[in-house]
Amino acid sequence: MDYKKTAAAIKADSFKMASLSRKTRDLALQAMIDTLSAHKDEIFAANEEDLKQAALDQLPMPIQNRLKFDDHKLSDCISGMKDLIAMEDPLFQELLKRKLDDDLTLIKTTCPIGVIGVIFESRPDALVQISSLCVKSGNCAILKGGSEAARTNRILFDLLYKAGTQAGLPKGFAALIEDRAGIDELLKCHESVDLIIPRGSNQFVQYIMANSKIPVMGHADGICHVYVDKDADLQKAVPIVIDSKTQYAAACNAAETLLVHRAAADDFLPALAEAAGSSIEFRGDTASQALMACTPAKDSDFETEYLDTILSVKIVDSLQDAVDHINHYGSHHTDCIITENPETAQRFMSDVDSAGVYQNCSTRFADGFRYGFGAEVGISTGKLHARGPVGLDGLVTYKYKLFGNGQIVSDYASGARSFKFEDIK
Amino acid sequence: MDYKKTAAAIKADSFKMASLSRKTRDLALQAMIDTLSAHKDEIFAANEEDLKQAALDQLPMPIQNRLKFDDHKLSDCISGMKDLIAMEDPLFQELLKRKLDDDLTLIKTTCPIGVIGVIFESRPDALVQISSLCVKSGNCAILKGGSEAARTNRILFDLLYKAGTQAGLPKGFAALIEDRAGIDELLKCHESVDLIIPRGSNQFVQYIMANSKIPVMGHADGICHVYVDKDADLQKAVPIVIDSKTQYAAACNAAETLLVHRAAADDFLPALAEAAGSSIEFRGDTASQALMACTPAKDSDFETEYLDTILSVKIVDSLQDAVDHINHYGSHHTDCIITENPETAQRFMSDVDSAGVYQNCSTRFADGFRYGFGAEVGISTGKLHARGPVGLDGLVTYKYKLFGNGQIVSDYASGARSFKFEDIK
Lengths: 425, 425
What we know:
- 2 copies of one chain form a homodimer.
- The first copy, chain A, has 15 helices and 17 strands.
- Chain A is an alpha/beta fold.
- In chain A, α2 (22-38) runs antiparallel to α5 (71-86) and α5 packs parallel to α6 (125-136).
- β16 of chain A pairs parallel with β13 (356-361) of chain B.
- Chains A, B: Keywords: Amino-acid biosynthesis, Cytoplasm, NADP, Oxidoreductase, Proline biosynthesis.
């Protein structure tokens, strides 16, 4: 496979994809739903093979769990696709329509980014979600899934590809890369690929960024914090901290560090330790060691994404100390304050430099489905373009169309003509 | 000067800047207008010194011209600042307000990017424009201007800085770097600086991108095209091509290449050559050499930004050939079709992968002022975040605020609770 040629052909098709009507794209999504439902037994059989191999290879249990694609996962996928069909078209939206002068009209209109390379981990449902988001947003997708899900990904891709092209999508609307070496080839295709979305470890994302000229949207780390303020309702704080840490410890939006205001610590930390029992391993600073059973935290603990049921704990003297700690050690993903004081919450939300700033709820809510986006291609911790869970909005850009009738700039520079600047609603 | 420390202090102030009211930011802009007006003689005197030195140093005339800061430039700056004051606040805009469940409300709200480093060329008016845009959008600005404008930049900065801080902006709202070495120091401050906007040569922008972990927004090149279609009105085409090339040949939005449909070439090229006279040096492909006086174009001509009154010319067989040429050789900046056929124009605008796609008007319209943005910090040829002329919109990002009352994800995962997803208008 000549990646540069393939990518160039996909790029050429991306312009066809960009001009398809909403109807064609939605019908393609419906055809994809239909084919997944019709062939679910074959999909599950392929997944069984992947699962058997994973067990033989003794892959870690979290990976084996993520690999599973069953009736429950399929119906989640289909429900997300139905949501996407129902959603407003992200394309052809006029963000601005301005009369610059008579017969000179500027229209800022949304359009797809073009060709998006997505590299994702073991979950086969990610392939379905990402493909669907790209179809709805008019982007071509080059997909690379985890090798442990190879059989499931292959049948899912084949079904979606056949349904999509039969429903009128161009041949290049999607492609599947099946070998690891293909990632490095993809990274060289900066003339054809507009964006790479890597999902995986921090190290992997850094590798992608260092080895490609293609813009990368992704997150580097998920070091999320819960700060229990002096005005916290401890009845809320205890379950929120436990949920943020344990509901799915391997997720990027799980909390890694608990910050507690000194005035709340005496009451809160023992209550938390009792409620958590053995479900959380605490690593505390000196002050918190006196209040709960925990191992001593090193400074490096506060910059670690455990991906496990370990929580570092630190007692702080003020809101400002908590904010400073989060901005310094955090990864600008999602951070939560527990407080009943609305002004304190407002200041926390303004000063914490993260994509998600929460009051009185679990950090685990940071997710495209839970935000009502239908699906997500990932979560961005960058501040440009898209931030937080990335749904359809993050997959479109815009262009400026200017319709004239012979106008030249000399006439405006000389003062012979002047701009009118009237926005057209 | 310890750049990392200075940048960290500015970063700390960026959170104060982010929470200022619109009123404070607008009053600061008004104070800046007042001080510029009150001290204009001193500004012009400093500029005279810069101009004298530039003449002694025999700097190229285009640079000497750009360096000039006179009554005309000042009144343009002030008019842009007044426009900014009148504009809607780009901050605190609710892009989405959604009830996820009872007492669980998601608000997607605009906020500043934070700390922006801007490196600009000889025009001192750029300092005023960029500072104003950053104040209106609540960003802190670290500015580095051209050394040939050092005296003008220094007095402009001192006046703006004093007026801004007296009007209530934090001390770190702006800083001026005065030595070339400061650029490399700035590039190392990825922990404090959120975005670099370089304005300068392609080579310079590439250097910045290769030497910093900080995201860069800018344009690499300005290779803009005018395509004269077979359905063109040649009466419009001639002045548009001449204006696109000659109205300001050193600008990034000046045309570098003219593409002409074979069916229009016989009539058009001789007419263009006659109208242009000696104002344009044409470099044509073999077919166009037969129709007009021109030197032969090499393939490299079509990938050259001349920054001069030179225009490469190529005859093409179809709209598709023109589109393919533009997407291959262009820089995704601004490209224009001259045609009376609306369907042809629509296809050109859909298939040309550029920030600006024009019909029947000069490429020189690609500019923040001419789009009615008040000012611009630059023009982006990237497709992510901001595209085309970048005004206030490109200087803000957003964050997701989630207000809860103790909600945890376990309850939604188990089915004990379910999301309501009601958008609040």
